[in-house]
Amino acid sequence: MAMFVLALVVLVGWKLFQGSQLTLHKFGWRFLVQSDWDPVNENYGALPFIFGTFVSSIIGVLIALPLSVGTAIYLTELAPNWLRQPVMMLIEMLAAIPSVILGLWGIFVMVPWLRDWPFPFLKKTLGFTPFFQGPIYGVSILAAGIIIAIMILPIITSVSREILRSVPDSQREAAYALGATRWEVTRIAVLSYAKRGIFGATMLGLGRALGETMAVTMVIGNRPEIAKSLFAPGYTLASAIANEFSEATTEVYLSAIFELGLVLLLVTIVTNIVAQLLIGNFGVGKRVPAGH
Amino acid sequence: MNCVKTFKNLFATSLAFGIAATASAQMLINGAGATFPYPIYSKWFDEYAKTDPSVRFNYQSIGSGGGQKQILAQTVDFGASDGPMSDDNLAKAPSKILHIPTVAGADVITYNLPGNPTLNLDGETVANIFLGKITKWNDARIAAANPDAKLPDQDIVVVHRSDGSGTTYIFVDYLSSISKEWEAKVGRGTSVKWPVGLGAKGNEGVTGQVQQLPGTIGYIELAYAVQNHLPYANMKNSAGSYVKASLESVTAALASAKIPDDFRFSMVNPPGEKAYPIAGTTWLLVYETQKDATKGKKLVEFLNWAATKGETMAESLNYAPLPENVQARVLARIKEIKY
User: Fold this and answer.
1) Which of A35, A237, A249 should we substitute to test contact with B (largest number of B Cβ atoms within 10 Å)?
2) Is the ipTM of this complex over 0.90?
3) Of residues A10, A9, A43, the one with CA closest to residue A255
4) Domain range spanning residue A63?
5) Are residues B205 and B167 in the same domain?
6) How far is residue B204 CA from its own chain's centroid?
7) Residue B339 lies inside a defined structural domain of this protein
8) Is A115 a member of any domain?
9) Rounded distance, CA B330 to CA B98, Å?
10) Residue B259 and residue B182 share a domain
11) Total structural domains within chain B
12) Which residues of B touch A216 (CB under 8 A)?
């Protein structure tokens, strides 16, 4: 079975590689570092998409990580027993919301709210940095990051919780025996023990964030441009593929989209391998959900 | 027990029917392509099945790019496209491919302004807005044609399609025909490099974005604007009059557009007092010489039906039917198909 999955990935990768031959030859490495995306003049560069993918995913992880780890700590160390299961269930239900539904909610509820309250507030307080300047449209890289955070929260939380639960009680007991307070026990005995595992959980979340398509497309503004401001619209690799594939009429155009797919596949695979290595080394690999 | 028996009977009957259907050798005609005409095509296939039960159509609305690719690869019996095939692509075909125009649609310019006024716009102004050269709603160039509208001192936010689409093709084709600068900087295509603006997926995405964000302007299919009660601008046509988009004004545009013999034409900004300038047609793509004689015969029968009876169904689905002069030419073209 495992071999079958591996073969599938290799096959997909090979197909993408074949499909992108034209642009691989025409543009070479320029494809990765050029920021012009012009289907009319057949000039393609993936940099704005790579940028948008990474920035929106990293924002997502930065928002989701403290929330997830906080929730995981609460659930394993602090919450009364009767509360743990229901809360975990609610969080896992969040993962069951289809991406497109979350996107619709994003476009009709979240984005107008962000535009009217949090964004102007951020502009007022942090507007002196280049990251919070410029006109506020609502749809933006930041909005995409927030949607991504909501989507990866469940996976980071549940994996982190498994990892915290795998911390042997002897660790906690030893810390208590040394006279540590509850917070010190959590910080020294539990968190430092689980550190790498949580990092792995984060990487799993990041892996999911990188490939997120529908919800992101609906709130990111789909503009292939590299802007400093997080209020500016952006574009991701996955969104570009979803948007432009169906009407790609020329061979070079299609090939460019295949190459976007190839780049995305490689980025996701590398992220997931790193995550698996870290979690695997940590010895809780068996209990970790299979990711995606 | 009874239940099981009934079920068994049912199963037997359906099996028998199945066999009967296969025995009558129902023919399957495969097509793929454009999404814009999908609603009317699927209605045609349904209705046509009633007139000729021996054929069944399977149409995949995978986009014009896919439609062109599949007809070239001969994996479908007909393709469909919102833009005409390029010379390059036609040269790749194993034999001659015919363009058969079916119905036309219009793009309207919609916006989100206080009071939802009906604006008068001309192509030059729209091009300048989409080029990012007109950035405020109370710009003199907009105000000149709209003395009665209260235009706010507000930034214009451009919304365009993020996915490749025939709607975009019609719109940029129009802007290119009006503005030399647009043609040089941006050009024509189902997706282009937009100088400014936000991208939204699908007509519904653009509609949603325009409804959500004050000060936006975008282009959508006429049908969407009508269904969602959005305001849309009267556009200045080449005769100099401001025309409201409607099925009649689109058909009028088709009637006065210059249509070349191979039907690979653009009907934006045609002459004619009543013509709405931002309109386009959609095509079926078929080989002039059909390989499979029986299938080819059935396909031609269907095309004839579509160009006559089918056309009468267009308006109920918000598509503009072909005017008589074009219809006659299309029917003549269908006759040329050999099988």
Assistant:
1) A249
2) no
3) A43
4) 48-234+268-281
5) yes
6) 15
7) no
8) yes
9) 10
10) yes
11) 2
12) none
- Please list every residue in chain A whose beta carbon sits closer than 8 Å to the beta carbon of residue B193: 36-41, 224
Residue B1 pLDDT? 41
Q: Where residue A273 falls among pLDDT bands split at 50, 70, 90? A: confident
Per-residue confidence band for A197, with pLDDT thresholds at 50, 70 and 90: confident
Chain B CB within 8 Å of residue A246 CB = yes
> Cα separation of B264 and A174, whole Å?
81
At residue B192, the pLDDT reads 94
Q: Can you give the pLDDT at residue B16? A: 46
**Between B62, B193, B205, which is nearest A246 by CB?**
B62
Reference A185, options A160, A157, A164; nearest CA is: A164
Q: Which residue of A has its CA nearest to B72?
A: A249
Closest-CA distance, B203 to chain A, in angstroms, reads 13
| Band of pLDDT at residue B224, cut at 50, 70 and 90 | confident
Q: Look up residue A38 and give its two tokens.
A: 């012009």
Return the pLDDT at B190.
86
Give the largest Cα separation in chain A, rounded: 71
- List Cα–Cα distances, A130 to A68, A127, A228, in angstroms: 28, 7, 6
CATH of the domain at A116: 1.10.3720.10
Shortest distance, CA B302 to any CA of chain A (angstroms): 26
Identify the CA nearest to B45 among candidates B78, B82, B74, B81.
B78
Q: Is the pLDDT of residue A283 over 70?
A: no
What residues in B contact A135, CB-CB < 8 Å? Answer: 155, 157
Stated pTM of the model: 0.86
Nearest by CB to A233, which of B66, B164, B198?
B198
Q: How many domains does chain A have?
A: 1
